[in-house]
Amino acid sequence: MPEIIAFDTHNFVKRMTSRGFTTEQAEALAEEQVTLLNSNLVTSQQLAATEERINARIDATNARIDSTNERIETLRAETKQSIAATNERIASMDERIVAMDKRITETNERIVAIDKRITETNERIAATDLRIEAMRADLLKWMGAGLIATATLIILVISGVLFALLPPVS
């Protein structure tokens, strides 16, 4: 039931007639004024209903805010866990990289040592090649001398046999 505002129509009509309106005009204006006031007034029931709707929307909005805050906290916790896991993986990778660097350094040191041994072996082979060439030259000299000596002996033996087979010259 709408509330009606207290409006003194009798006093309104008296004031209007004192200002030159007829009683009929003043009463018509008073009725219109009451109708206008009553139609534009919000009743306490209407106000309560509007307040209930607003409060319901506020509650719904607060529930959504709470839900959003919970989701934010969940995401924040998940992000922290993800960051922690990523940091662990990075630390593990760093350790592996350090180990790989150490192995690479060791491998490079072994390669340098092998290169040094190869160089030393090549130098020894070159020295051996020089000695072989020197021995070959000496061997050729000795073979040449041996051939000459053998040829000389053969000639002497043949000469000696020939002198032995020939009759003595008188």
How does this structure look, described?
With 170 residues, the chain is mostly helical. It has one domain (42-165). It has three helices and no strands. It has helices at 9-18, 23-40, 44-165. α1 (9-18) packs across α2. The chain starts with 8 loop residues before the first helix and ends in a 5-residue tail after the last helix. The model has no long low-confidence stretch (mean pLDDT 91).
Quickly give the structural class: mainly alpha
Spatial extent as radius of gyration = 65 Å
Total number of β-strand segments? 0
Order of helices and strands: HHH
Report strand %. under 5%
Number of helices: 3
> Ranges with pLDDT <50 over ≥5 residues?
none
**Envelope shape:** rod-shaped
Largest sheet: none
Quick overview of this protein structure:
With 170 residues, the protein is an all-alpha fold. It has 3 helices and no strands.
Give the topology, please:
Elements: H1 9-18, H2 23-40, H3 44-165
Helix pairs in contact: 1-2
Throw out a few tags for this protein:
single chain; 170 residues; mainly alpha; 0% strand; rod-shaped
